Amino acid sequence: MARLLLFNKPFEVLSQFTDRGSPTTRATLSDFIAVKGVYPAGRLDRDSEGLLLLTDDGRLQARIADPRFKLPKTYLVQVEGDPQDAELEPLRRGVRLKDGVTLPAEVVRIDAPDLWPRNPPIRMRKSVPDSWLQITIREGRNRQVRRMTAAVGLPTLRLVRWSIGEWTVAGIAPGAFTEITA
Fold first, then answer.
1. 160 in helix, strand or coil?
2. Would you please indicate which residues are annotated as catalytic (active-site) residues?
3. Residue whose C-alpha is closest to residue 141's, from 78, 68, 76, 67
4. pLDDT tens by residue, 37-84
């Protein structure tokens, strides 16, 4: 049986165990996970939070990370603006980015979720409203969700990956992980 860690990656933590070559010290997975022989299955940007899966099984790692398997990844995304359905439609059809058109995303407006506080907090502008979206994609391009929302005029303020396939970060505190067998 493969080991699988469901880690709630905090904001400003790198999705790797070391940070070589950086002039400043940055937080890495080794600051939170002392389990030997596990490796991230995919990445989550330093400025994003939420579910990061780690495993000791190369096949499982490839199945999770490889876009060919199209595992759904669901994000809770706080955006600048107050989008209506018509403004979200391009995300649902696929958005043209510099590296091509994205696959259609599932997008719904949601109430502000009950999440842990982010440190540091996001910047808020009194004159610009913000809202929350739940976005599910089935590919994993670099900074894809942020680029998609920016392309439709909705800059991302906060991005939390909530689930990958059947696995979710629900009930896992930032910086903590749960271990299961897969």
1. strand
2. 45
3. 67
4. 999 998 899 999 999 999 999 999 988 888 777 789 999 999 999 999
